[in-house]
Amino acid sequence: MVLLLLRHRQHLLLLLQPHQLQAQLFDAAFGDEYTAPLVHADGSCNGLQHYAALSRDEEGARSVNLLPCDAPFDVYSRVANFVAEEVERHAKDVFSPFHSEAKNLVGEVDRKLVKQTVITSVYGVTFVGARQQIASRLKERGWTDKDKIYKTSIVAAKLTMAALVTPAPHK
Question: What pTM was estimated for this model as a whole?
Fold first, then answer.
């Protein structure tokens, strides 16, 4: 029995790798007649890719590189740009309820600040989770005032989550 297992161990290994087994079966059945198409897989925010495909959202699909376009998109940068614009708007508006926190965020909003929240949004991140993620990024940047981090991360989380449901302009 052991000799039989040793002699056919490559077949046993294929069972542990089902895609390899499938490829071997196609090869055995069809030989050179079967050619598998090469499929390009772009992992630009996979969860958002699934949502865009399932909902047939063309702008969303374009944002996560599911549709052809002149240049690849970076959904994280698009969200960061939207949030940065909103931060600037609130920082200039002295009557905005986000005015002082937005002033703290001017120059701080970038791809890294929003990326984790964008990724986890499709998995159901809560507002509290988004705020904690953004607070962690601010701490990484050397922010130490706990009250300032807390209040500022609330505003950043609200704006980031709002960006995820706001239609993006065509660019």
Answer: 0.68
